[in-house]
């Protein structure tokens, strides 16, 4: 059985939290890096995750000023994490049960990786058409395609 450590992204972009880290700063990093989330760390420990969904729900929908809103106010603080030796089927189950698309992987030394649903689709025996669909859905914000226009 395949394990999380075999498919996880190891070069994870993180955000070291301090009292001056604004939602705008975080959004700039996410846009620059072309990523959908930032893992917030403090003293090497995962303390939160900020996703595009968090920005939409807690900044845009609430009409908050991203320059004046601290990341720690809007990030998800109860982070579901997995371990490097977690089997992929268990990681997938954990993600679906918790309705998350990104699973930080931690060991005793802290954050060591990140798994997304797209990573799982690529690594498993899913056919190419399904992988393209999952990637298109995961990256729809980059292409501007609606859910009805995804090209296969």
State the distance separating the first and last CA atoms: 30 Å
The portion of residues forming beta strands comes to 15-25%
Poorly predicted regions: 143-152
CATH level-four homologous superfamily name: CBS-domain
| Largest beta sheet: strand ordering | 1-2-3
**Class by helix and strand content?**
alpha+beta
Structure keywords:
single chain; 152 residues; alpha+beta; CBS-domain; three-stranded mixed sheet; two-stranded antiparallel sheet; 8 helices; 19% strand; disordered C terminus
Briefly characterize the structure.
The chain has helices at 4-7, 23-33, 52-60, 71-74, 88-98, 117-123, 128-138, 140-143, and strands at residues 14-16, 37-42, 45-51, 102-107, 110-116.
Structure description:
The protein is an alpha+beta fold. It has a single domain (4-143), classed as Roll (CBS-domain), CATH 3.10.580.10. It has helices at residues 4-7, 23-33, 52-60, 71-74, 88-98, 117-123, 128-138, 140-143, and strands at 14-16, 37-42, 45-51, 102-107, 110-116. Helix 6 packs antiparallel against helix 7. The two termini are 30 Å apart. The relative contact order is 0.19. Mean pLDDT is 85; it is low at 143-152.
